[in-house]
Fold:
Amino acid sequence: MVAQVIDGKAFAAKVRAQVADQVAKLKEENGITPGLAVVLVGEDPASQVYVRSKGKMTVEVGMNSYEHKLDVDTSEEDLLALIAKLNNDPAVHGILVQLPLPKHLNEDLVINSIDPAKDVDGFHISNVGLLGTGQKSMVPCTPLGCLMMLRDHHGSLSGMDAVVIGRSNIVGKPMAQLLLGDSCTVTIAHSRTKDLPDVVRRADIVVAAVGRPEMVPGDWIKEGATVIDVGINRIERDGKNKLVGDVDYASAAERAGAITPVPGGVGPMTIACLLANTLTACCRANSLPEPEGLTA
Ligand code: GUN
Structure:
């Protein structure tokens, strides 16, 4: 079998276009412009690239973007004071604090100081609990993007066997909750899982989110399975820098029914879902109906 390639770049563009349409409608009918505040502490080069890209796309869909760039040695007190100000600002509907934070800042404390209704990352402990109990929450962007692609490809996921490889709070655990919410039978595999190849071979859906370059070979993939590769790993091959996923794409594509490439798969969906979450937060804050197809 030669896998269908799930084009995340095109899908993300479609999601952003839907968000832009809804934003235009909100402005016209309600006089409201959604606003996203992004807070960056320090000068981590990768984080700077992400934050710039988020700001650009926020403006492109017609939302207001508020960027707060703070010095690397900003105190916890000052950061918490800024978050308190954003929590109380009615023009700000979404708040994202770019991670990782410098070592002297307590990440959990900072994340949990964000108003859960504005927590567009879905990392606040309240949102984690709401998702885990099947209640309305803000859902982490990367797993939300994966879910959208899976729903688009399959329609219903009900009864499918899903294996999530990786148990991070940002991807693995929320992904498992979302798949469970769509009535999959879910296994979370990780570095201590026994017989990982056999566990993966049983899966109709494989979500790989471990951060290890090409660790899932094609012969672990069941014929016809759908493979969602969340990994973005920079490696050097033949003297060149290359981006690869957690799945060995070439061999997996020979067995899978559908597969996301790296780059151009899950990656572009993350920012698209951040914009979707900001729109959702804005609609909820104003007691307006939520945008269809853009939430879990
Ligand atoms: N750093 C890398 N990915 C993310 C993300 O999804 N959200 C935040 N806040 N920081 C990140």
Observations:
- The mean pLDDT is 98.
- Residues 96-99, 121, 141 surround guanine (CB under 6 Å).
